[in-house]
Amino acid sequence: MIVSSNLKDANYNGNSFTGVGGSPFLSDKWASGKVKLADGSNYTDLKLKYNVENNQVFLLTDNNEVKTFQFPVTEFTLSQGANEEKGQERVFRNGFPSIDDANAETYYEVLADGNTKLLKRTFKTIVAERSPSATTPTNVFKTKEKYYVLRDGEMVNTRTVKKSVLTTLSNKAVEIEKYMQLQKINMLDEKALAKIVTYYNSL
């Protein structure tokens, strides 16, 4: 576990947001994970939770105290799956160029790594919703996702749509279209998109 000098109190209030339904976290469960800090240190076998709404990583200590990190977190991983110890690792990283309303401190999930990266930004906004039976609206957290390709130091918006992918990776569009036909990739989701970017890096 991380030494106390690298931790600070989080003033953690769980999932309590007065008057707001839903959760600000990527997942309400503590996940097994590891972190890289800006001071160069690495830590494993941690219990982590990622607050998407305020872009903050929390740590659960062996004493069940919730802490944040003294130094900025530059990368963290979260395990997922029924058996989280052996589950798939999701890698989150910051330090990328600013785009839209995101900056260098914003965490992205790295779906495909290499010279060209596929990045996914998950964020939450508070919106007012009113059910058919309600007389007044209720504030709730809504999850939104955006995909970006980082190539040659530039962030470019992309979508899980064939035309968007071919436009984003236009210098290899012919090869990618042939690859999609060979792999029988007709409907794009983020896994297929990651597969395409990984192939693009191999060209």
Supply database-style keywords.
203 residues; mainly beta; 12-stranded mixed β-sheet; 12 strands
Can you summarize this structure?
This protein is mostly beta strands and 203 residues long. The chain is built from three helices and twelve strands. It has helices at residues 162-168, 173-182, 190-202; strands at residues 7-9, 20-21, 31-37, 42-51, 56-60, 66-69, 73-80, 88-93, 108-112, 117-129, 138-151, 154-158.
Structure explained in plain terms:
This protein is mostly beta strands. It is built from 3 helices and 12 strands. Strands 1, 2, 3, 4, 5, 6, 7, 8, 9, 10, 11 and 12 form a 12-stranded mixed β-sheet that branches. The chain starts with 6 loop residues before the first strand and ends with a helix.
The H-and-E topology, N to C, reads as EEEEEEEEEEEEHHH
The count of β-strands is: 12
β content, as a range? Answer: 35-45%
**Quaternary class:** single chain
Q: Which radius of gyration do the C-alpha atoms yield?
A: 19 Å
Given the structure, what is the number of helices? Answer: 3
Helix share, percent = 10-25%
Q: Report on the biggest sheet.
A: 12 strands, mixed
The first-to-last residue Cα distance is 42 Å
Unreliable segments (pLDDT under 50, ≥5 consecutive)?
none
- What is the residue-averaged pLDDT? 88
Shape summary: globular
Overall structural class, as computed from helix and strand content, comes to mainly beta
